[in-house]
Automatic annotation (TrEMBL):
Transmembrane portions of the chain: none
Record's protein name: 1,3-propanediol dehydrogenase
Database matches in PANTHER family: ALCOHOL DEHYDROGENASE, ALCOHOL DEHYDROGENASE 4
E.C. designation(s): 1.1.1.202
Keyword Isomerase: no
GO molecular function: 1,3-propanediol dehydrogenase activity; alcohol dehydrogenase (NAD+) activity; metal ion binding
Gene3D superfamilies hit by this protein: 3.40.50.1970, Dehydroquinate synthase-like - alpha domain (1.20.1090.10)
Family named by the database record: Belongs to the iron-containing alcohol dehydrogenase family.
Any Pfam family the entry gives: Fe-ADH
Keyword NADP: no
Every Fe-containing alcohol dehydrogenase-like C-terminal domain range: 189-381
Keyword line: NAD, Oxidoreductase
Organism: Blautia luti
Amino acid sequence: MKRFTFSVPQNILFGEGVLKELPGAAGKLGGKHGFIISGPTLNRLGVVGQCEEILTQAGIAVSTFCDTEGNPSVETVERAAEAFRASGADFIVALGGGSPMDVAKAVGVVAKYGGSITEYEGADKVPGEIIPLIAIPTTAGTGSEVTAFSVITDHRRNYKLTVFSYKLIPAYALLDPLLLTSAPASVAAACGIDALIHAEESYVSLDASPFSEAMSEKAMELIGRSIRTYVADRSNLEAASDMLAGSLFAGIAFSWARLGNIHAMSHPVSAFFNVPHGVANGILFPYIVKYNEEAAFGKYQKIYNYISTEKKCESEFSKGMLEQAVRELNAQVGIPAKLSDAGVTDEYFAQMTEDAMKSGNIAVNPQKTVQEDILALYREAL
């Protein structure tokens, strides 16, 4: 067994109603004035107001920034950081899906250390602890409440930059399944497939360890048994709980094992064509499963049994079956089959291929990958 390292350096609260414990978490961080970073939809639905009320009733001042967008930009981070500094707040609450959390992490860096978030691109460039951060996911997908990554779009380059540092992991994560019940089916599907891919890619990653594999497997078990039910009925709290816990475990897994070609390739798809991250991942999923089959086949039967409605013993399982199961799952939850179905064309494939190859995920993909392979995969998925 190879050497491995892990830690889970945060406080995680899970269960129906844990949102009400937000003031207690803030108090343990010494927080007197919270700054909520969220999106316009959650603001319109009253979820932001709910958090504001919980904090103000506990005597904690609140300011808000609700202008995050899907695939958040460098400019959004700059506006949010300016608003944070002007507010006088001393801690941040990231409320929403991956986009508000990516912005909140980035604000936590630049508000503390200055400069542009572009200056922190890459690994381990954050010099120390960031502004205290509490993460509250309202989707079951990104796992960003427990990850060490912030992904921000730089429109000047049509590029999704990644900041990686374990300093980005929120001090507290509050996971309340009640917050997942208002998600539209399309969002539930895209986020759920994203979480499943986090689990699958970290599981077959060359950097996988017994610790990360245990997290990946539990994530696939929970998501595989509940994603269809949750997409069909978001009010099903048992299914919502499975999805939220599965997303959590998958996030922990890929924080330590990284991902693979799916995520390396999906970031340029989103950067150039503004395709939602989970949708881009989902479309690429079966193509990369097929590509990795020779290298990762030893783990494919177990993945299949987690995500398929049918179970196969070793003697019944054969090549191509996992790819087909992924295609069937995508169709069942409404993920498009091809990149062209999401408005992607081949005009930027050369630049997208170069950008994908810059991702550190390429190095841990189980099947060795060169630039020509990425270009061929884009063309196949088109």
